[in-house]
Specification:
By secondary structure, this protein is α+β, with helices and mostly antiparallel strands. It has one domain: Roll (Pnp Oxidase, Chain A), CATH 2.30.110. It has 4 helices and 8 strands.
């Protein structure tokens, strides 16, 4: 191989507009959530739904919930990758808030409806949401800022 014959050429990386960032969060169903406590950073995949400048998700009790309860400041990352030179990625920073009562029920409904598009068999969960709510912690990430980049 001589010089740059096989070296891939990247186009310029561009910034997504605010509307494009919101649309990417609306389109994606899965994200990576980063939270931290003292010197520990914890990064996990989540399923979520984006609605009115917030992300809604659920979890069983565990390390992630413990960390977010102690430090509610989190970062969430989504991506849509076609190939090495065609991709979009966005970050959202925000604050963790646990939901209860009607807010939790409404959030769980939104999650089930959103995931139903991805996996139709999940719709059977909608029949008995009470059993889902008994052990699940339903939460919202109230977004404080967002940014995104893309290449194509």
């Amino acid at each position: 191989m001589k010089g740059n014959e096989m070296k891939p050429q990247h186009e310029t990386i561009h910034t997504l507009s605010s509307e494009e960032v919101k649309n990417l969060f609306k389109e994606c169903k899965f994200a990576h959530l980063a939270c931290h406590h003292h010197d520990e950073i914890y990064l996990v995949p989540i399923s979520y739904v984006y609605f009115e400048n917030a992300l809604y998700s659920h979890s069983e009790p565990g390390r992630k919930i413990e960390i977010m309860r102690s430090n509610p400041h989190v970062c969430v990352q989504v991506e849509k990758i076609k190939d090495f030179f065609h991709w979009q990625s966005a970050l959202a920073w925000g604050n963790y808030e646990e939901l209860s009562g009607d807010e939790a029920t409404q959030a769980m409904r939104m999650l089930i409806m959103s995931l139903n598009e991805f996996a139709p068999k999940i719709s059977s969960l909608a029949v008995d949401m009470t059993s889902q709510l008994e052990s699940a912690i339903i939460y919202r990430i109230n977004i404080t800022s967002m940014t995104g980049r893309y290449e194509n």
